[in-house]
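Continuing the batch. This is chain 6 of the set; chains 1 through 5 are on the previous pages. Same settings as before, nothing changed between runs. Recording input and output for traceability.
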Amino acid sequence: MQQRTLAVFAVLFLIGCTGPAAVRETTPHASRIKDLDPTVVLISIDGFRHDYLDKAAAPNLQRLAQNGVRAQGMIPAFPSKTFPNHYTIVTGLYPEHHGIVSNT
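Output for chain 6:
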């Protein structure tokens, strides 16, 4: 009786280990992609004055600036540190409202 019970449990265990049969997708991958919202890529170079791009030979950065939007300058939020100002740029909040006041 024990051998039969053990055999039944072994068969049930093996059946449980098998997964469902693979289902072939009939929908092409490209048709499942939804229309994506526009994506904004912000390029910020720390310590790079707005006029450096015109003074240096940086053809790739110049091409990006010509095909995108370029700020002529920036008035930093206080404290004028990199991470708090980046957070201010992307949220529109000043450091006293978003709480990030240092780089660390």
